[in-house]
């Protein structure tokens, strides 16, 4: 039984006449009569009464036609759903990200993606760089935003593009001696209690701090360890010490705080977006299109891996 058989039966029920039904279908009457007869043999019941007044569904025909309408509706819906999925308009996107990406660029990226793809289910996971890299390699994520390029087993199979640059900045309370200064030196920082991120979550940042202050610096060993950059800013606002973190913190100013540049200028690892090239879905392609639209200079890097990115999965 094919979908056309269902359409033929529904047309005949609507027009109550073989000739009129055939004309509406754009076929000759004899083929229609044969197809309906074949359908009745396959079903094992007479579906239409042929009378002088017209052709009318039997009880069996009425029951059959009710299901046939629903079946054709489902077929049409399936075609629509398939087309939308192929364009990346439905499905899911699993994204792993470090907390500081919520300052930049994720707010604009996720906002735009949600407006353009409201039926895509977003599965968002905040996690450290090492964890998101492992999850991406294992196929548990579609895309990850990390500090620095992914490393470790399987990382060579990932495509990675830089989506942001960072350097070290300091944040203090409005009443702190360094408030109002454009910059603070390393020597000045050695004299004050510090607030830093945990080494297991952001090892690259901690490595940069150790290079700046010295590997066994008592300044670092005595620092307050904050869970993330939001806590760094919050503790600094409370006067606990000088918070040190990425320049993305400037995107989240808090009343009663002051940001200073750190001298010498200390670059931090780039913010990097990574994904598996061979396993990208239409939804991932759509997400990459939003990334290229919101992050300057990313388009050329994506083209290097993918060619022109489209949202149809090709």
From TrEMBL:
Pfam families: HTH_1, LysR_substrate. It comes from the Bacteria. The keyword Acyltransferase does not apply. Residues 1-58 form the HTH lysR-type domain. The keyword RNA-binding does not apply. GO terms for cellular component: protein-DNA complex. Gene3D superfamilies: Periplasmic binding protein-like II, Winged helix-like DNA-binding domain superfamily/Winged helix DNA-binding domain. GO terms for molecular function: DNA binding; DNA-binding transcription factor activity. CDD domains: PBP2_LTTR_aromatics_like. Keywords: DNA-binding, Transcription, Transcription regulation. Belongs to the LysR transcriptional regulatory family. This is LysR family transcriptional regulator. It comes from Streptomyces tsukubensis.
């Amino acid at each position: 039984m094919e979908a056309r058989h269902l359409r033929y039966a529904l047309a005949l029920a609507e027009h109550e006449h073989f000739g009129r039904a055939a004309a509406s279908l754009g076929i000759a009457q004899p083929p229609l009569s044969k197809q309906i007869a074949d359908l009745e043999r396959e079903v094992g019941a007479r579906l239409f009464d042929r009378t002088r007044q017209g052709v009318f569904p039997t009880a069996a025909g009425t029951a059959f036609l009710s299901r046939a309408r629903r079946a054709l509706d489902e077929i049409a819906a399936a075609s629509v759903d398939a087309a939308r999925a192929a364009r990346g308009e439905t499905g899911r996107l699993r994204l792993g990200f470090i907390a500081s990406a919520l300052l930049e660029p994720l707010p604009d990226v996720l906002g735009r993606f949600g407006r353009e793809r409201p039926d895509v289910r977003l599965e968002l996971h905040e996690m450290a760089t090492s964890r998101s890299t492992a999850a991406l390699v294992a196929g548990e994520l579609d895309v990850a935003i990390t500090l620095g390029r992914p490393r470790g087993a399987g990382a060579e199979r990932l495509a990675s593009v830089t989506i942001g640059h960072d350097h070290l900045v300091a944040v203090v309370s409005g009443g702190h001696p360094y408030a109002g200064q454009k910059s603070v030196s390393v020597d000045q920082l050695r004299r004050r209690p510090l607030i830093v991120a945990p080494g297991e979550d952001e090892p690259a940042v901690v490595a940069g701090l150790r290079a700046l202050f010295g590997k066994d610096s008592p300044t670092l060993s005595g620092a307050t360890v904050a869970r993330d950059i939001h806590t760094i800013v919050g503790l600094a606002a409370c006067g606990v010490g000088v918070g040190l973190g990425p320049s993305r913190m400037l995107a989240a100013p808090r009343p009663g705080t002051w940001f200073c540049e750190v001298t010498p200028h200390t670059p931090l690892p780039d913010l990097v977006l990574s994904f598996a090239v061979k396993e990208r879905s239409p939804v991932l392609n759509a997400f990459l299109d939003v990334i290229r639209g919101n992050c300057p200079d990313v388009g050329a890097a994506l083209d290097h891996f993918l060619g022109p990115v489209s949202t149809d999965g090709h």
